[in-house]
């Protein structure tokens, strides 16, 4: 009997983590469905030889359409899903509007939640599957000027922990990847959101914001221990292919350090460590 080629759907593949994860799985013989929200990025990846389709996680119709296309090509099977699409909205909590907070949650949480629910129907029918969510060090370590992003990733971690309990015994496994500083377009994209949605000059935090602007505009690595996006791709590979996948895959030294500090330090000391991060 012919064993079907294993398949994975990946969101947010225009660059960075999503792009390199798609390359990782494609190069290792998987049938990859890379997805992007912009048609020009879809065309670019197709020209590079990747099987790419349009998927905007903010749009329920786009989610349904993309998943229908994938299942039509695989005969109704899908072995893995990597929820990677997302962005960071900088700014102090008191400077973030309801609209900006809603946009943050639509992309970082509600879209991945809706897509995962749809995929789980297929995985339950076939009796197995892997779902991986791209979280962050900021999914457990709250740091200043990142409240909207912190909140979306904290919520993602709670959702995934709950899913892991509810799927116990089903052979559908849910894992979180928690990167720290990674080479990607995260900072340029965050800078655009910062300038669009935050009244920097009118904020009580405007002096502190200058440091944030310098960090977001900096060329090259903005933080020590920055790793290439391939480091996250390898963690996703482990989460998808390991016989017993872990609940969390922590990538970069800062993520591992802050996880240890969270478990070992008194709250006031841990808070001080989080405030020391710029």
CATH class: Alpha Beta
CATH-defined topology: Rossmann fold
What is the average per-residue confidence, as pLDDT, rounded to a whole number? 96
Radius of gyration over alpha carbons? 19 Å
Across the major sheet, the strand order is 3-2-1-4-5-6-7
What number of structural domains do the residues give? Answer: 1
Count the E strands.
7
Q: Considering DSSP H and I runs of 4 or more, what fraction of the residues is helical?
A: 40-55%
Class by SSE composition: alpha/beta
The profile of the biggest β sheet is: 7 strands, parallel
Which CATH architecture would you pick?
A: 3-Layer(aba) Sandwich
Can you write the helix and strand succession as a string?
A: EHEHEHEHEHEHHHEHH
**How would you name the CATH homologous superfamily?**
NAD(P)-binding Rossmann-like Domain
């Amino acid at each position: 009997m012919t064993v079907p080629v294993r398949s994975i759907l990946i969101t947010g593949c225009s660059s960075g983590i999503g792009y390199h994860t798609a390359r990782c799985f494609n190069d290792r013989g998987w049938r990859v469905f890379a997805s992007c929200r912009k048609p020009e990025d879809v065309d670019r990846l197709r020209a590079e030889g990747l099987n790419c389709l349009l998927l905007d996680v903010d749009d329920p119709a786009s989610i349904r359409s993309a998943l229908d296309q994938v299942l039509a090509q695989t005969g109704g099977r899908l072995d893995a899903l990597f929820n990677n699409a997302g962005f960071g909205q900088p700014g102090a909590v008191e400077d973030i509007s309801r609209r900006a907070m809603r946009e943050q949650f639509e992309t970082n949480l509600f879209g991945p939640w809706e897509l995962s629910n749809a995929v789980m129907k297929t995985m339950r029918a076939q009796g197995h599957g892997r779902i991986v969510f791209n979280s962050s060090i900021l999914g457990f370590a709250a740091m200043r000027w990142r409240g909207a992003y912190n909140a979306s990733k904290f919520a993602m971690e709670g959702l995934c922990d709950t899913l892991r309990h509810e799927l116990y015994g089903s052979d559908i496994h849910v894992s979180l990847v928690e990167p720290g500083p990674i080479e990607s377009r995260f900072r340029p994209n965050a800078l655009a959101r910062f300038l669009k949605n935050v009244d920097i000059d009118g904020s009580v935090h405007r002096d502190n914001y200058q440091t944030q602007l310098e960090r977001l505009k900096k060329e090259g690595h903005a933080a020590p221990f920055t790793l290439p996006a391939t480091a996250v791709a390898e963690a996703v590979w482990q989460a998808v292919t390991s016989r017993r996948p872990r609940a969390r895959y922590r990538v970069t030294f800062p993520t591992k350090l802050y996880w240890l500090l969270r478990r070992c330090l008194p709250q006031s000391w841990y808070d001080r460590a989080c405030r020391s991060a710029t």
